[in-house]
Amino acid sequence: MVIQALLKRNTYYDSITLMSVIQFVKEQTEVDDAGAVMATGANLALMEQAELLPIAFLAELEKSPGPEDLLISIRASDEAVAQAALLFAEQKLAAPAKRDVAGSVSTPTARSLEMALRHDASANLAVISVAGEHAWLEAEQALRNGLHVFLFSNNVSIKQERRLKVLAASKGLLLMGPDCGTAIINGVGLGFSNVVPRGSIGIVGASGTGMQQLTCLIAAAGLGISQAIGTGGRDLSEAIDGIMMRAGLALLARDPQTEVIVLVSKLPSKRVAQALLAEAAQCAKPVVAIFLGKAPEEFGTVGGIIKLASTHTGGAELAVSLAGGDHKRVPGNSALLELESRLAEQGASLAPSQRHARALYSGGTLCYEAMLLLSEQVGAVASNIPLHPQWELAPHEMFRGHTALDLGTDEFTRGKPHPMIDPTTRLHYLERAAQDSETAVILLDIVLGFCSHPNPASVYAPVIKRVRNEAQAAGRALPVIVSLCGTEGDPQGLSAQRAALEAAGALVFESNEAAAFAAASLVIDTSDISQAKGGSHD
Amino acid sequence: MTETPELFSASLRVVNVGADLFADALVEQGVAVTRVAWQPAPGDSDMPLSILLGDERVDRANAEAVKRMMAARPRLVDVRPAREAIPGFQQNLLLHAGPPIAWERMSGPLRGAILGALLYERMAANIAEAEKLVLSGEITFAPCHQYNAVGPMAGVVSATMPVQIIEEPVYGHQTFSTLNEGLGKVLRYGANSPDVIAKLRWMEQVLGPALSRAVRAAGGIELVALTAQALQMGDECHNRNKAATALFAREIAPYMVETGNSNEETVSVLRYMQGNDFVYLNLAMAMCKASLLAAHDIAFSSVVTTMARNGTDFGIRVSGLGDRWFVAPAQKIQGLYFSGFSEQDANPDIGDSAITETAGIGGFAMATAPAIAQFIGGTPADAMRYTLEMYAITVAESSNFQLPPLGFRGSPTGIDIRQVVRQNHLPIINTGIAHRLPGIGQVGAGLVRPPMVCFVAAVHELAASISKGF
User: What is the ipTM of this complex?
Assistant: First the structure.
């Protein structure tokens, strides 16, 4: 039998802690007996009684232990067992105590990202939506701590964006944003996103509602999404150089679940887009690139497996085909033919003064796409996000001729929620457009999914019904066209929303392109909608 | 086919910084979300915070600071007059609590204590003479901290006053504090009447020497172990020192008897300890000062090593910023007042005793002191919450001081100015309230938080010293 001991000077533990540690040591090791005490005279006497007093050990000390010193002593069959038990006891004492807190006081909410990571060290994604001037620091800290970032905040400077994206790329992380409205990662919708099945089509997109439109159209055709990675709207600018679009492309190229890749952006820099396409051509998977409003010819010849489109609907049809689905199941322009007679009927009831289309959008990319398509048919479209500078609305102007408003821009959302959440601003514009005798058609987008208004049809349908009745009473027809973006699985439910809107007299399209063409058909000189060309199929 | 990218094979675990809308949608999808109750950092501090949060040298320096803070082993070794004990002390030197301050800006209690100290030192025969002496410029004022001393409330230390000498052998520092006078009319609250001076003389002639003999006979007293025990007996060692005082008295009593000059004298000293629950406060403060000295002057460290008030200004010092004070006007204390007094009577925050919070006890250890939660205007649940909140702005959990109500979790230790500013979340200080007029004494107790501007200025300064890039 041997006795081995350990003395820790000036180290205090209460006797209950020490007793519980010793009990643990006795249970978990092969010792004969063990003791741990603050080395008071009385305690040493107790150790002696228990035949645990390490007499030889104490004799070798320069100074005998005192009440402020911790003494651990082990009696065991041999030295190795005793030493192991001492080490075990020491580690057990040093280990953090159980965090069971008496009473009802819970851990306070984290007030910084670093503290949140103390709560959950395995977090792998930060969703950031704080005010833009502070958002970069949050994103930077998330990246430094190894988190991917979904950065919803806008007003992050382009210089900061570049810095953050370079940092993200150097760490193999995604920086989705800034001003990133949507993403779907591992089947989880981030931000404003729709419930779509998982599948083989992967998306990297610089546009929020554009990606929502794409994922919904693909889901409607019965296919699913592997990943939908947002990049923020400026990623394909000269300054950002497509850092995240290329990172997303590379990720999807490696991802075994992804069989077809869709890239989508508005307003790409031609040089950046070409470089991106060159990289895409190296990828072994088919790639569909949607550059809104850019004719495929603009990019010259690209690799054989890259297909180009200029609208979401066109891109969705290409992707569905490439993924082995039926492109005809994408709710595209065929809906125009189904509604042809109703469109013609409403067009015929317009008064002579009713010459202009009025588009009131909540989704910026959808608005942009609608303007592109409208202006192809009708020429100038005034807007707060004009396609040409001379088409910009003056500050006092609500409408001027054909008009398309993006009501989600800063000027309309300062101090107010986004129109996808709060319809107040858009209802005001809807009323004014309806009262304007020049208005021939009102075009609205309604975007369903997470984070959007829980039941937009319940708000818009009664107003649509009323303004149409009022117009009729004034001797005018008032066609209302809705571009409805959503899925059956969304919290709001696509068909219930569609039914309520249709019951109010709206013409509902799931394809924004089709909705824009329908609106255009009511204001072009010839009401022959067969003139309206479809998306850029090849 | 290549391997699935890491992100795509992991299950998402999200930190949500910003609108709850996004977190709610994730929870609806069954995703684990940790929410951040985000606030903008005050004082245009994002860029300096980015520099400090992104520099690993700061983290390493902070780890070293708290390691030293916890490895320090301060012990009481003797009690001697200040002029003998404190290196560089002069007869015309008066130390005071808090950051440096000139006579013109001193608050009532501090002025009262200064004048009282001059009477006590027999450098003036009456208050008028004492004032004249001060105005003559012959008296030098300096913060206690400048001499590694600490004093509660006015914190005035003069040459003849006995001070407790704390030695810290691991890092080789010495710190000092006066002996506690008890409650009521006392010099540290600015009282200077003849009975106050008489008490100081008794402390000089009887108490100091008696303690000196006893402490030396005991071979010194280990303060960390004693404090750790007191924290498990309901003290937080700032506003409650009942258990620690009892433990100290128990340690010292036999030696007191052994080395006493006379029964009468020994009894008078023991009765002093019997009647004063704050005997240990001054020891706790000097112990904390010694731990924090060990943690001071570590390049790049953003850990606070001093928080102190002089009744007019609040000042902090930071380990990586040398002896520079970051100062702002002292705050009013939120608390309870003794009957007959109200907020109108209160002096702004005063004293070096916030050194306890700086070292991770006092207000930071409120969870373990439910008995006084009500005294400072709260419930035991509030006390628990105060401590839990302080973990968010500290670097470590103490290996010395465990808090039973939190499952023996170590007390929150090492205030990090980065997180104070980043979270807009100030340390909590558990303190007494002095009357704004000299000589009346304590009128209440409560909680106070330092001014944020001190921390903001320190963050900007530390970032600037690390990087000239902004």
Answer: 0.92
